[in-house]
Amino acid sequence: MEHKEWMRPEDIERRSMEIIEQEMPAGNWTLGERAVVKRCIHTSADFDYASNLYFSPGAVERAIEILRTGAGIVTDTNMAAAGINKKVLGRLGGTIHCFMAAEDVAEEATRRGITRAVVSMERAAKLNGPVIFAIGNAPTALLRLDEMIRAGELVPSLVIAVPVGFVNVEESKERICTAGVPCIIARGRKGGSNIAAAICNALLYQTG
Amino acid sequence: MEHKEWMRPEDIERRSMEIIEQEMPAGNWTLGERAVVKRCIHTSADFDYASNLYFSPGAVERAIEILRTGAGIVTDTNMAAAGINKKVLGRLGGTIHCFMAAEDVAEEATRRGITRAVVSMERAAKLNGPVIFAIGNAPTALLRLDEMIRAGELVPSLVIAVPVGFVNVEESKERICTAGVPCIIARGRKGGSNIAAAICNALLYQTG
Question: How far apart are CA B176 and CA B139, in angstroms?
């Protein structure tokens, strides 16, 4: 097959990161933050992530530390959960939790007239141990997290606030910015489950 | 909760599509193609998808027809599989196939010194009935599909060729363009598993 001569996947990733490095601005990120920015660009080919990502001071470095101790990750879509490297997370002792598809979550959401994302965050708030929230889809998930954080009911190790969208999304992300917890935010409209997973993976790959 | 006053998810989607419609160019897409473009922008907030998507003539309309008859969808990542609306696909009688995580696929790939994506496409080529290939990640998957198509070993109903990336990706997508099968392609570097899933969903939502 002709394409046997093409690069191997490992080499492709290395070369891709070199290209991204060449084309992205110098920025004033820490090394850890820079790795997150690069992986977001790698997963989207969208250099806007070199300008729209906000990191609360020390958030990346603390998240890497906490992942090393086996922190769990909560997502608001099965798609983000599918994109996170479970081999690396599992090796560290961590687990992914996504409550969105649970039948009783749907029932509770219908009964209370709220979104499944809100119910999912309430379930996640009851998990034991340190937890990173990776939210790439639902603004209501962020709003509920923000409420619980401000009420002192939840102290997340990190909130990755990167829903994509055109309505309610920017406001929901900006709220997390001022909630007083470590956060990584994609300001503006952009983001998504792929970006949430990419950020988690960028953190996981720095635990080694 | 204050955010009870925020829009419901259904309303958010409707309003988002209106905003996208306002901001995107008029274009000369068919109605079906336009729905695909809009959903790609909806999932990424990236209006580049208004200029980089190529549709072979009639591909969207034929894909909608074939999905109505219960066509299957093959993906090259579990993430894309997770993002496709399985409720709608299942109602039509279709199934999603992703062979990437199968243990024997990994073994065969190692033994033959090729990627798991190539082995996965070979397995998928043996599926019965009409199949849509939704490739959002691996250029080698597209290259193998291209080889099998040109060798007359495979006649896919549609190839969605939207890997994201910086190395080998553009070439792999351009090859599918001239393979003589119905295709939807994200030209250039952009794409991804989220885009592959969004395109499948845009097709599925037009079967009703």
Answer: 11
| Contact partners, residue A144, CB within 8 Å, separation at least 6 | A117, A118, A121, A122, B1, B3
Using alpha carbons, select from A79, A85, A49 the residue that is nearest to residue A193: A79
Q: What is the largest CA-CA distance in chain B?
A: 61
Question: How many angstroms separate the first and last alpha carbons of chain A?
Answer: 36
Cβ separation B44–A197 shorter than 8 A: no
pTM > 0.90: yes or no:
yes
Mark which residues 60-89 of A lie under 8 Å from B by CB: 77-79, 81-83
Question: Cβ contact (<8 Å) for A166 and B194?
Answer: no
d(CA B80, CA B100): 11
User: Which residues partner with B183 through β-bridges?
Assistant: B159
Q: Give A158-179 as a DSSP string.
A: EEEE----SSSHHHHHHHHHTS
- Secondary structure (DSSP) of B42-69: HHH--TTHHHHEEE-TTHHHHHHHHHHT
Interior/surface letters A24-48, b for 16+ CB within 10 angstroms, e for the rest = beeeebeebbbbbbbbbbbbbbbeb
Q: Encoding tokens for residue A68?
A: 């090393």
User: Quick check: is A3 catalytic?
Assistant: no
In a mutational test of the B interface, the residue from A8, A16, A112, A194 whose CB has the highest number of chain B CBs within 10 Å is A194
Q: Are A73 and A89 in contact (CB under 8 A)?
A: yes
Each of the 208 residues of chain B gets a pLDDT tens digit; together they read 445 556 777 788 999 999 999 999 999 999 999 999 999 999 999 999 999 999 999 999 999 999 999 999 999 999 999 999 999 999 999 999 999 999 999 999 999 999 999 999 999 999 999 999 999 999 999 999 999 999 999 999 999 999 999 999 999 999 999 999 999 999 999 999 999 999 999 999 999 9
CA neighbours within 13 Å on the CB side: how many for A41? 25
A125 contacts A146 by C-beta, under 8 angstroms: no
